[in-house]
Design goal:
alpha+beta; globular; 162 residues
């Protein structure tokens, strides 16, 4: 955005105003609302979500991930989902022996949407998104197909199900 002579706040704000779900974090919300969110962790993320819900009445859910790079092939990832009345955040999950990061955000989004469309709770939505994100790190290429059984096996400790 900095290299382009445009107005990201106006452009993205117009798009988000039409959305039910936002896949974005406190930095994205700061950009579109013009607000800053001091502090860190869950409190900052909830404050950003509340500002987004106030600014965009159609929004029903905000989902995001946070990544901490430990080494090139080892990252710690957590995920969060906020609704107007609820929130769920995972603990950090260490992902090691990373093959490919490309498509991990799409995998997270697919898990969020799949669970949300299935009427799951915020906690189930965020866990499904994080599981698919983590599993995708072990697959080369920009897409990976995993089943609900793969997700269950992942949380049961099977790790990489492929």
């Amino acid at each position: 955005w900095a290299a382009w002579d445009g107005n990201p706040r106006a452009i993205l704000g117009e798009i988000i105003a039409c959305a039910d779900i936002l896949i974005g974090n406190h930095r994205d919300i700061a950009l579109v609302t013009g607000k800053t969110f001091p502090g860190s962790g869950e409190a900052r993320r909830r404050a950003a979500a509340e500002a987004a819900f106030a600014a965009f009445p159609r929004l029903t859910m905000i989902a995001s991930t946070a990544r901490r790079v430990i080494e090139a092939d080892r990252h710690a990832i957590s995920a969060r989902v906020d609704t107007r009345d609820d929130a769920a955040q995972t603990e950090e999950l260490e992902v090691s022996r990373i093959v490919d990061r490309i498509g991990t955000g799409d995998a997270f989004t697919a898990g969020v949407l799949h669970s949300w469309l299935g009427g799951q709770s915020a906690a189930a939505v965020v866990r499904c998104g994080l599981a698919l994100c983590a599993l995708k790190h072990g697959v080369a290429g920009d897409a990976a197909a995993f089943s609900p059984a793969d997700i269950a096996a992942f949380w049961d400790g099977a790790g990489d199900v492929r």
